[in-house]
Amino acid sequence: MKVERDYFESIIERRGTNCARWDTMDKKYNQENLIHLGVADMDFRAPDAVIESFQKVVDHGIFGYTDLFGDFYNSISRWIKRQHQVDVKKEEIIFCPRITIAASLAIESLTEKGDEILINTPAYGPLYQAIIKNQRKVLESPLQQDGEIYRIDFEHMESLITPKTKMYILCSPHNPVGRVWSREEMKEIGLFCQRHNLLLFVDEIHSDILAPGVKFTSALHFPEQVRSRVILATSMTKTFNVPGVILSYMIVENENIRDCLKADIERIGMNNPNIFSVAAVEAAYNHCDTWYEEMLDYINGNDEFTRWYFAEHFPEINIFRREATYLLWMDCRALGCDDQELEKWFIQEAKVAVYMGNTFGKEGRGFIRVNIASPRALLQEAYERMRQRYDSIRRSQIT
Ligand SMILES: Cc1ncc(COP(=O)(O)O)c(C=O)c1O
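A: This is the predicted complex of the input protein with pyridoxal-5'-phosphate.
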């Protein structure tokens, strides 16, 4: 089945649908004419097969309690095999509504109050907040950058470890900096966790959305002695643009860890999925390979277009290499303005909303994150709005 390009080119009105990206952000900025390139979902229609499978549920008309059967697990196993060439057993897969919940649950079930948990910064907020909100201590290890890509500072991570350090939370691929950790880096991460007896919570939600030629090394490829300390959390919601169905899952090989997590899931009564999430997994993981490949291609085209446009019109803004995700991480520090001025310029002058880098911690000051999962014409309009007002932000740098 060939997916038509229109699929990604059509601009679909999302306002008025309780949409976090468009409605909530309009409300936040108290404006109605912004173009929103912030919240990480796509402005694309989900694959037809997913919509049809939702339709079947709707047509049936009974939305009863739902359990998980073989097809759900087989669909996940098929996809994992397709993407990572690894066989995952049904019992290793644990359903969880959101990765954000999985992170909190893993912290709460597997560590104690006051324990230390390591995370690299800039960091995806909910992962960072899961440490704080569960009263654990955050050990921040800033990623190092050279203007093109970011790297993990293993020496710095070593220097932070104490007997109270119990877990490392790894975002792989990394949001917001767009890195895919190389095989060598993953090996070093594994050795590091083994050496310090750390649990590794790894969030692989962005691992399906890779730039061309980039190879992703899943935590599933760690040697057995490292895999036994891994809680892998992932989802199909980013890949197939259905984050509103609220669904993720963990893959945990270690039976003791699994039992702890499952007991906690039962304790809080979170074991039944939403009826639509089952439909989404089965359809997306089995029948949407073409949509998926074309979506990657379209995102890549948007990435190239954005780089071309910015080089041409906004030479002071440096875009980091995107190895994965549909998010571009951009350094705006050469504009010489502070975050408040920059945000004000985006909202009040350019009429474009992006994520300010400081929402990912202090290492993100002076940076922005731009979501390029939109029809190209919409991106173009956003960039043209920026171009028309660009002189005013440039001028503020000179005066
Ligand atoms: C790294 C990362 N993890 C998790 C999520 C959200 O996952 P969920 O909706 O399952 O909580 C996002 C969404 O932006 C993300 O970027």
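The radius of gyration is 21 Å. Residues 40, 98-100, 124, 171, 175, 203, 205-206, 235, 237, 243, 248 surround pyridoxal-5'-phosphate (CB under 6 Å).
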